[in-house]
Amino acid sequence: xxxAHTARPVLAVTLGDVAGIGPEIVAKTLLQHPDLREKCVxxxxxxxxxxxxxxxxxxxxxxxxTVITDPRGATNDPGTIELIxxxxxxxxxxxxxxxxxxxxxxYRFVVEACRLAREGHxxxxxxxxxxxxxMHAGGxxxxxxxxxxxxxxxxxxxxxVLSAGDLYFFHLTAHVSLKQAVEDCTPDRADDVFxxxxxxxxxxxxxxxxIAVAGLNPHAGENRLFGDEDADVLxxxxxxxxERGINxxxxxxxDALIPAxxxxxxxxxxxxxxxxxxxxxxxxxxxxxxxITIGLPVVRVSVxxxxxxxxxxxxxxxxxxxxxxxxxxxxLAPGWDAVWQAASSSVTTAx
Length: 351
Description:
The chain has 12 helices and 12 strands. It is an alpha/beta fold. The chain folds into 2 domains: 1-155 and 296-334, Isopropylmalate Dehydrogenase, CATH 3.40.718.10; 159-294, Isopropylmalate Dehydrogenase.
């Protein structure tokens, strides 16, 4: 489904934590990149007062912010920021400080974007960063965006995926402690992520794409010298995946696999825990990457950085990752039904 006046997908762009850089980078993205409007119809889900303040901090005109009620009725004028007002004004939230009000607002923006997607008013969701501690202070105890989105769409098998170009980093676990991540690297979870990755590449038209899993332990366990999980969990999961027709490989020591992926040997990598994937990815790609949630019935793409309270309000935050997120969401949205159908039909167990 697309907007009434254009074939371009409509994006719900959540404002994120308004105490952070979200309003600034949203303003820069929508007002300084007019070519983006040729690819999509971005509609902000957030707070008009915070959006206007963000425009001012970015050195842009706050009068460009217009409140609308129907995303499908957006004009998509490159000189405007069209916004769905969600909840009370957040004008009094201090910039650069942890705020329960901002955390509650960030939560509400995501929930509203999910509602708009479920009801067919938007074709994809793009999220500016939220602060997890602020969201918790606001009374919403979710580990992060990914888990909240999964809850709103009632899915239990999903993966946080970092992407730059044709490179995709899936994650067996994400927003949990390292100790919990080891415990959560189970046979069922490994099976599910291999299935998700295989469904995704199949929907992209590359069903034979190799999928490599990083070893959980140093040297992928080194024949059990450094732990048993690689031999007991990951190796059998790879064997089962291959029996299901998936071109799976590993476990491969992470310090060998990830550099090889960066050089182009592997396009689909499964990391076992958050920092195993995030740290090298961000070191190499910086703001040239995005975060995609695979396993949802609607496209969701996010920036690959946080709220940056230390520079919030200074107008110096770069919008590059948010621009990429909008472009990637617009590119994925028309074919996402195939991704969702493939992923949902491949699920074998809940996570």
